[in-house]
Specification:
The protein is mainly α. It is 80% helix and 1% strand. The chain is built from 18 helices and two strands. It has helices spanning 3-10, 17-28, 31-53, 57-61, 71-87, 93-97, 100-128, 133-144, 150-157, 162-191, 203-231, 234-245, 247-270, 272-303, 312-323, 327-338, 343-372, 378-392; strands spanning 65-66, 69-70. Strands 1-2 form a two-stranded antiparallel sheet. Helix 5 crosses helix 11.
Length: 393
């Protein structure tokens, strides 16, 4: 068999390649990552059943509230973020900020998050819910809240760059304090024409929400990381502590989903027809935003002379940062503005109910595309081919 036949035999044909790649992606996931999707679906189902058949569960959750959100939900969100933010290599951040590429990625992220995202959500809300103004308002409020929490989970699952993701999350958090109130007032009152939100939205409320859901786990993550590092060693931190501590984030995610679905389970069942209608703009929003950001990064990687600056890891960061939303903030503000039993609060709650399964599915898509697509520019590929040819000689 000559060399060409060997190469041809080693290369899967076009029909079998997708299934082989899918199998390879699945095999590279840890056992926890493999079980996450069915575990999330099970948590959703159990949560809805609890909410429907245990009518006192919402009142039990509401006995302890903070910043308009049930404390059991707040605890889950904080636990979910703590291990993820412990993994961030804060010691490398100053070097990243000195890179010109970092500022390019910040600009791309800000464009998707604060220009494209809100406009897309408003357009989809009006296109799909023209006769349901209360639900439309809740959907718009979700679109205005840029993600500062779960994007770290999706980035971790899809093998993105955690350090860059942490930087974008922090920047979005600061901008959220400044922009969430005027954005929501603009798109609900002025563009939406409802004229109902005037007194409940203020900078202090948004800042407090950011402090709770990012500040607390961020401080806890920094303290945990460097305490373990100082008391043991960096090798112990990276090789032994973080692999044991990391799964707590997924457990926190499952706990949060279970509690949230139980909290709104009865309301979901009683308004099931409207709930399914709210699914439509949410699903379209997550898919459109993720696809646009991921596609742009792939296009840049293919055109750039240094594809690593726009490679797969950064495509994951940009795609999930653009597609994710800060549902905890949207829910808290909707409850404070309209009440816990309002249509607006229900629509805001539907946000994470849709976001979780859709973005879990998109993590699988991302992992598949990492292997399926070529992330190097043609010039780099030609250069590698030339080097291999020279080495063969």
């Amino acid at each position: 068999m000559d060399r060409g036949q060997v190469v041809q035999a080693a290369r899967p044909d076009s029909e079998s390649a997708p299934s082989i790649l899918s199998t390879n992606v699945f095999q590279k996931l840890s056992i926890l990552d493999r079980l996450l999707t069915p575990a999330i679906l099970l948590a959703m189902i159990v949560g809805v059943l609890i909410g429907e058949y245990v009518p006192t569960v919402q009142a039990a959750f509401d006995t302890a509230r903070f910043d308009g959100v049930s404390i059991p939900i707040a605890i889950g969100l904080i636990i979910m973020m703590w291990p993820v933010l412990t993994k961030v290599q804060y010691e490398t951040l100053p070097q990243l900020f000195r890179s010109s590429g970092m500022w390019t990625h910040i600009g791309i992220s800000m464009f998707f998050n604060w220009v494209v995202g809100p406009l897309v959500m408003v357009g989809l809300a009006w296109a799909t819910l023209p006769d349901l103004p209360t639900y439309r308002t809740g959907v718009i409020m979700v679109g205005m809240a840029r993600c500062i929490a779960m994007v770290m989970i999706w980035c971790q699952l899809a093998k993105g760059d955690g350090n860059y993701c942490a930087i974008l999350v922090v920047i979005n958090s600061v901008l959220q304090i400044i922009l969430y109130s005027p954005y929501t007032l603009l798109f609900v009152n002025v563009v939406g024409g409802r004229g109902v939100l005037h007194t409940h939205l203020d900078y202090g409320h948004v800042a407090l929400s950011v402090l709770i859901y990012l500040g607390i786990p961020l401080v806890a993550g920094i303290i945990t990381r460097y305490t373990v590092w100082v008391m043991t060693s960096k090798a112990f931190l990276e090789d032994r502590f973080l692999p044991l501590f990391g799964p707590a984030a997924l457990l926190g995610l499952l706990y949060t989903i279970l509690v949230m679905f139980a909290y709104q389970g009865h309301h979901i069942v009683q308004n099931i027809r409207h709930v399914f209608r709210v699914f439509v703009p949410m699903i379209l929003y997550f898919v459109i935003m993720w696809s646009c950001a991921f596609g742009l990064m792939y296009w840049l990687a293919r055109r750039s002379s240094n594809s690593r600056a726009f490679g797969y890891k950064m495509a994951v960061v940009q795609a999930f940062t653009a597609a994710s939303n800060n549902f905890e903030l949207a829910i808290a503000v909707a409850i404070a503005s309209f009440g816990v039993g309002s249509d607006e609060a229900l629509a805001a709650t539907i946000g994470p109910l849709v976001e979780v399964p859709v973005l879990v599915a998109l993590t699988w898509v991302a992992l598949y595309l990492e292997k399926r697509l070529s992330w190097r520019s043609p010039n780099e590929a030609d250069s590698d081919t030339s080097l291999r040819a020279l080495s063969d000689k």
